[in-house]
Amino acid sequence: MEIVKVKRYIVLGILFFLPVAFLLMLYPAKHNYDPLDIVNTNISDISNFTSDRGDSIALKDQITVLGFLGKNPLDKMIAVSNLKELVYDKFKGFKNFQIIIVVPNGTEEDIKTLKKEINTYEDLKYWDYAFATEGEIKMLYNTLKSKERLDPNLSSNNVFIIDKDLSQRGRLDGRDEKQVEDNKAAFSVYSYNMIEVAEIKNMMSDDVRILFTEYREKRQGKFDDSNTRRNKEILKDNE
After folding, report:
1. How is 27-71 classified by DSSP, letter by letter?
2. Cβ distance 164 to 63 under 8 Å?
3. Rounded to a whole number, what is the distance in angstroms from the first to the last CA of the chain?
4. Contact (Cβ atoms closer than 8 angstroms) between residue 59 and residue 43
5. CB–CB of 134/151 below 8 Å?
6. Whose CA is closest to 166, among 40, 52, 27, 80?
7. Residue 77 and residue 61: Cα distance in Å, rounded?
């Protein structure tokens, strides 16, 4: 009888202490992630551009997804829809988040039509269209790091992530874990193709989330800035 009681107490003790021990092991653990790389610095701001809302507009102190629709913005309807559904809808309302789409002066009527198509159920209050001259658009694009040139139409299928300090974010090594395991050649990610649904839905969405995590940890005093310093040193070495 005593043996039965002892066994019962041992089982109860294990059932009680095992979860506690597991929690104690997790308690000191810190969630680690790789901050989103700085791939370029000193991006031009757009405070001299004109917003479709008539409000002041800027990249500084905002987390921005920046795109270029060119002289025929209606031709980019599918790309814009992808960006709206896969990125904007996920992050709208996050503090200091915005999507800025740059278009040349003279496309105002096309933008009104585009907004009617895209803004079907809601006013996209964190989404602005910025009008500028051809020279201003080219100057802005030239401050970005990109593997593709802005086309003669002043448009691109690619969008860029710009942080609050006017630095361009991306990946110095864009390989996933499997590609690393398979020893695939490293490649950099400077922008994200709006036409490629998987790229926007998975890679870009994850990268925006990582950037929000970085800023949240900075506010809480938990962010290790050594990786940012390392990235800046790499950029200087590559210039």
Report:
1. TT-----PPPEEEE--PPP-TTSEETTSS---STTSEEEEEEB-S
2. yes
3. 80
4. yes
5. no
6. 40
7. 29
Q: State the sign of the Cα–Cα–Cα–Cα dihedral 152, 156, 162, 168.
A: negative
Total residue length of the chain: 239
Phi, psi torsion values for 90, nearest 5 degrees: -80, -35
For residue 176, what are its two tokens?
């996933």
What is the maximum span of the chain, computed from C-alpha positions, in angstroms? 92
Cβ atoms of residues 161 and 170 within 8 Å: yes
CATH class of the domain at 37-238: alpha beta
From 35, 34, 44, select the one nearest 64 (Cα to Cα): 44
pLDDT in tens, the chain (239 residues): 566 555 565 655 565 555 545 434 444 434 445 789 999 999 999 999 999 988 889 999 999 999 999 999 999 999 999 999 999 999 998 889 999 999 999 999 999 999 998 987 778 999 999 999 999 999 999 999 999 999 999 999 999 999 999 999 999 998 888 888 888 898 899 999 999 999 999 999 999 999 999 998 888 776 565 455 455 554 555 55
Domain ranges across the chain: 1-30, 37-238
